[in-house]
């Protein structure tokens, strides 16, 4: 049994029954059967369904958003934005998908060939709680367009969201088995990956979860896409618009209460502007209002659970023990709910392991860099390589950042964010493979060469 806990109040919400082994078997077979017919559909049928699902998300956006607020503490404003982004994602693949799947003519030394993108089968998605709708849609929209079918193992804490997504797909007129929610626990995932009817797996989550899924996929010789943690740098140079950089840095650190893989977690600031940046950034973080996620004037809600808050508090304590200074916030707030204040750590020892960890909460580490080379070296001195944000108006500096920051994504003079059009993913211990754009669509397809 899964029971939702409202992190703003600590109160129990809806409960959901865990599927039995027989029920899981029925759904996997249903997915296998659904693929046999869905793979033969024309693009017009697929795009029509994607558009219809988008319509369902739009029509039910308030109810869907409120489920996310209750289950993981996201503010209503950000929950509504997430649901609306999902509709945009479905419509993007409805509009652009056919062109992405167009065959390509290839000239060869012996004549000609054609490259065709063909569906593969049921794809298993193991998804996290932090963006409970959008993470799923990033896999689901291209899965439908590709002619594949999807099975979802969502986080235990957001089973209401998982059920609602399945409801939207069914209401849009999807054939039985095209997309199904599997209300199961993590210990059932290995067996699913080993099942011959499932052709691939995609996971967004922690390093530990990624290693387990990758190991299981390796044993089964199946394709896997992993989007794991990040400790994204936010680099500010003297040529940047400092006020805009500071304003964006605050948002980039506290969005989703700091619980995003691509949140800006390490502020790396050139020595010439470090003091000014820190003063303005401190004022901005001090003004962040934590409170009722349903309230329009709340900047950030609670963390997703008491356990998640304690993890962040423990990390702060370890960093302080190694000599860092907590100059603002980063503390448990009184009263009900998993609330904490936005915080800032300085004088963090760069060579200590805890400084290289991902802080999955609204606390920033601020570092001083002597020059651009030092800033890039510090940015790269972590095991992660997901995203990054750089602030400069110097073309030569921009080129250096684009070429030498070790990350799957770099945003220049803006906050990093995902979009349906652009590939999303990382390198190093942040995972491999890509979601979104044409590249995400192609990840779980058979690129077949036809000669002649």
UniProtKB/TrEMBL annotation:
<dbReference type="InterPro" id="IPR016161">
    <property type="entry name" value="Ald_DH/histidinol_DH"/>
</dbReference>
<keyword id="KW-0521">NADP</keyword>
<dbReference type="InterPro" id="IPR016162">
    <property type="entry name" value="Ald_DH_N"/>
</dbReference>
<dbReference type="InterPro" id="IPR047110">
    <property type="entry name" value="GABD/Sad-like"/>
</dbReference>
<protein>
    <submittedName>
        <fullName>NAD-dependent succinate-semialdehyde dehydrogenase</fullName>
    </submittedName>
</protein>
<feature type="domain" description="Aldehyde dehydrogenase">
    <location>
        <begin position="2"/>
        <end position="450"/>
    </location>
</feature>
<dbReference type="Pfam" id="PF00171">
    <property type="entry name" value="Aldedh"/>
</dbReference>
<dbReference type="InterPro" id="IPR015590">
    <property type="entry name" value="Aldehyde_DH_dom"/>
</dbReference>
<dbReference type="InterPro" id="IPR044148">
    <property type="entry name" value="ALDH_GabD1-like"/>
</dbReference>
<keyword id="KW-0560">Oxidoreductase</keyword>
<dbReference type="GO" id="GO:0004030">
    <property type="term" value="F:aldehyde dehydrogenase [NAD(P)+] activity"/>
</dbReference>
<dbReference type="InterPro" id="IPR016163">
    <property type="entry name" value="Ald_DH_C"/>
</dbReference>
<comment type="similarity">
    <text>Belongs to the aldehyde dehydrogenase family.</text>
</comment>
<dbReference type="GO" id="GO:0004777">
    <property type="term" value="F:succinate-semialdehyde dehydrogenase (NAD+) activity"/>
</dbReference>
